[in-house]
Amino acid sequence: MSSCFNGGAGWPEPVVRVQAVSDTCGETIPERYVKLPLDRPSATTLQPAVSHGGGSLNIPVVDMSMPDSGETVRAVDAACREWGFFQAVNHGVSPELLRRARSSWRGFFRQPAEVRERYANSPATYEGYGSRLGTTKGGHLDWGDYYFLHLLPPSIKSHDKWPSLPSTLRDATEEYGEEVVKLCRRVSKVLSKGLGLDGGRLQAAFGGEGGEGACMRVNFYPRCPQPELTLGVAAHSDPGGMTMLLVDDHVRGLQVRKDGQWITVDPVPDAFIVNVGDQIQVLSNAAYKSVEHRVTVSAAEERLSLAFFYNPRSDVPVAPMAELVAPGRPALYPEMTFDEYRAHIRQRGLSGKAQLQSLQNANNSVAS
Does the keyword rRNA processing apply (predicted)? Predict the structure, then answer.
């Protein structure tokens, strides 16, 4: 039994690993993983949506080989305003490194349970091997395990908290983190220019180069006998600044909400799926939107993804940038640090865009 449970570590109840549930539940998943009927994936959302022209509807694809060009800025700007998502190709991170990072982390989730449990996490920092987000006792759970780790600032990065098996993992993760941070900084400049600002403006609001935060969540979604009843990750918008998502190279699962419809993303090989987080929606005064998304699971295959979160420094106050506030466009959100914002998410778990909407509602009440 100890191989299936994390005995507590600050959680309100024993944590069951979804890998263990998948291996032992037979043809029926436990009730804790069954979503409410309105939240379940339907058969119509398991395939890419069809556009009015008859083709497959997918998030925009942007060539990032010339990030300083006006064409790139316009393409990213349009994607962030209309979708909140785009796929970055020719982004400068080598395909070999992408494969090495994915392979190393897949190797960790294939380690024996007793090896994985050495890194069991707690709600204090979430760093380590986990299977839940919110700290509320009871309620529905997602069909997925994860590994969460810190990369920036350097003062909170600890390789001792990273798995030592497989032997390639730490070096691959270190190199991967360095390269993706560089990519995030390049994209940040493009976003700033799209907003009509100086190229370094968003990064300055994040705390400046070297002052920003970065962390990574490696998601592992085991096979599920009833994928129509559950989700790997419930619908949410990302609470941080910007997310660089490296998805599985052969199993689809990410869905993005567009005009009330769930669209299954058809990933481009070796691309990063980039999405706006809540902090950039706040900083841009809602010019750029953080969009709800979720993850479906498969009865036939397990799935792995690497979500890299590029965030403001945790103690820097975040509010709509002054250049984007005007008499006809008042600030939509109050000032709040990322630490304060994240505390709400960690207590309540993922709940669509409820937290950002509550901030806007509170701000409107004060203004009126």
Answer: no
What's the CA gap between 269 and 216, in Å, rounded? 20
- Please check whether residue 207 is in contact with residue 316, taking contact to mean a CB–CB distance below 8 angstroms: yes
DSSP-derived secondary structure letter, 335:
-
| Other beta carbons less than 10 A from residue 336's beta carbon | 16
Is residue 5 pLDDT above 50, yes or no?
no
> Which are the contacts of 242, defined by CB distance < 8 A and separation ≥ 6?
184, 187, 188, 191, 274, 275, 276, 277, 280, 309, 310
- State which amino acid sits at residue 61: V
Taking the domains of the chain in order of start, what are their residue ranges? 29-367
Q: What tokens were used for 365?
A: 């009440």
Q: Which CATH architecture has domain 29-367?
A: Sandwich (2.60)
Q: How far apart are CA 75 and CA 59, in angstroms?
A: 12
Q: Say how far apart CA 122 and CA 126 lie, in whole Å.
A: 5
pLDDT by residue (tens digit) across 206-251? 999 999 999 999 999 999 999 999 999 999 999 999 999 999 978 9
Give me the phi and psi of 219, to 5 degrees please.
Answer: -100, 135
Rounded CA separation 362/263 (Å) = 31
Average pLDDT, the chain: 90
| pLDDT tens column, 9-62 | 688 888 999 999 999 999 999 999 999 999 999 744 545 555 545 556 789 999
Which run of H or of E encompasses 366?
helix 354-367
3-class state of residue 82 by DSSP: helix
pTM of the complete model = 0.91
Per residue in 75-107, pLDDT (tens digit) is 999 999 999 999 999 999 999 999 999 999 999
Q: What angle do CA 142, 144, 147 make, to 5 degrees?
A: 125
Sign for the pseudo-dihedral over CA of 262, 267, 268, 273: positive
